[in-house]
Amino acid sequence: MVEEERALLGEDGGGGGHRSLGPPRALSAACDPRRLPHRLLVLALMCFLGFGSYFCYDNPAALQTQVQRDMKVNTAQFMSLYAWYSWPNVVLCFFGGFLIDRVFGIRLGTVIFSIFVCVGQVIFALGALLNTFWLMDAGRFIFGIGGESLAVAQNTYAVSWFKGKELNLVFGLQLSMARIGSTVNMNIMGWIYSKVQDLLGYTGPSTLGLTLMIGGITCLFSLACALILAYLDRRAEKLLCKEQGKTGEVIKLTDVKDFSLSLWLIFVICVCYYAAVFPFIGLGKVFFIEKFKFSSQEASAINSIVYIISAPMSPVFGLLVDKVGKNIIWVLCAVVTTLASHIMLAFTFWNPWIAMCLLGVAYSLLACALWPMVAFVVPEHQLGTAYGFMQSIQNLGLAIIAIAAGMILDTRGYLFLEVFFSACVCLSLIAVVMLYFVNHLTGGDLNWSARKREKLQKVTATEKEI
To answer: Could you tell me the mean pLDDT of each successive run of 10 residues in the chain, 466 residues long?
Structure first.
């Protein structure tokens, strides 16, 4: 480390007045934190940091038939695996940034959250091995404690290492890697289960447990990335005399009383929209097998198409929305397209690839247009509270809707379930229309073009200088 400091700081070694023992030795590009090859290595580690979490999050969806058959549970109990993931994050999303900034620090915090993800997945798998479903629920609860907070840590690392225009690309790449993790899970876990079944010679809790344990290897891989990233960040801090990254979040629950009507409508859009996407994907595999007579492999493929499309399209749509503006119009297009997708799946026997591809495009577009709107309607000092509250009610909605969807499917079937999801999207659509008129009547800037917004920002900056 002394040699590395000399190489970066020159003959004086950065202070102290002591002369160097020899001429400074330049670090190789791969070892110099200021050089592109080293930063690309850090970027790769950041992207893989959340791979295991996203891979294992949808393990139940990839193995829905096997979980319900081997554990002898109904659909409502099966969907509780998603609800238990969401419950801790109703509260934790307010404190994840605080824990990283004030308690653990970014490096230790990332490692701790990665350990929670690993331990949660192991307990989840052990629950299956021991044929104890409540233990599987407990594993998902612990997994959820680490999963969402790990995403906060991932973003904090990104802000610490990359600045300005680089940052949008980095966030896009991280989101793409997350979607790749979900896609790989959807398409490989069923195959792993069949190989374990061939090895053991029978199906049952043991086969399911071993399959989930093998899936947990991805969490260990992400933990290894967290440890390496912590070392490289600590090394860069010493060599470049930079501070640890911080989230910058300031959470004040008293700010909630100052939230505008526009912000509350954005919350409604968020909850109602995602309630019709994630629970549907959680139950989608068996839906495609039963209604459209797909094979298990075909059902896994079509159920993952939303994530496959999202991986490359999220950065593209992010750039499009940045260039054009008109966020409300983009959100309206996404919600209408999603509603059309659910209606097609509910009432027609058209090739479901059409509806699912539309859903994938709409899902990608909504995320790029909806989440940035929060920054347009709240002051900067309230952003942490606003985003924390948005994530909190999103997780609350997902937990409740997951259980409700399972109960509807057990008692009424897939047609009623699709009508229920369509109703959720209709509520989201009503909220979008209300947001359009509220924004128009109050003179808000949510639907401004990017050019108009940039022009106003320049005028404001000039007035401040004067």
So the answer is: 49 44 53 76 91 95 95 96 94 76 84 96 97 97 91 81 68 84 94 95 94 96 95 85 59 75 95 96 95 93 94 86 87 97 96 96 91 83 78 92 95 95 98 95 80 72 64
Number of residues in the chain = 466
b/e map 142-157, b = 16+ CB within 10 Å? bbbbbbbbbbbbbbbb
CB-CB contact of 51 with 181 (8 Å): yes
pLDDT of 466 reads: 61
Query: One-letter amino acid identity for 75?
Result: T
Distance from C-alpha of 371 to C-alpha of 374, rounded to nearest angstrom? 6
Predicted pLDDT of residue 17: 44
Q: Which residues contact 229 (CB under 8 A, 6 or more apart)?
A: 42, 45, 46, 49, 107, 110, 157
User: 328 forms bridges with which residues in the sheet?
Assistant: none
Distance of CA 409 to the CA centre of its chain: 26
| Radius of gyration of the chain, Cα coordinates, nearest whole angstrom | 24
CA distances from 82 to 125, 257, 258, 314, 405 (A): 15, 31, 32, 24, 11
Cβ-Cβ contacts under 8 Å for 16 (sequence gap 6 or more): none
User: Could you tell me the pTM of the whole model?
Assistant: 0.84
CA 268/CA 464 separation, integer angstroms: 35
Query: Rounded to whole angstroms, what are the CA distances from 203 to 135, 206, 403?
Result: 20, 8, 27
> 244: how many CB neighbours lie within 10 A of its CB?
17
* Tokens of residue 26, six digits: 């330049």
Spatial separation of the C-alpha atoms in residues 355 and 359, rounded to whole Å: 6
Q: Please, are residues 320 and 377 in contact by the beta-carbon 8 Å criterion?
A: no
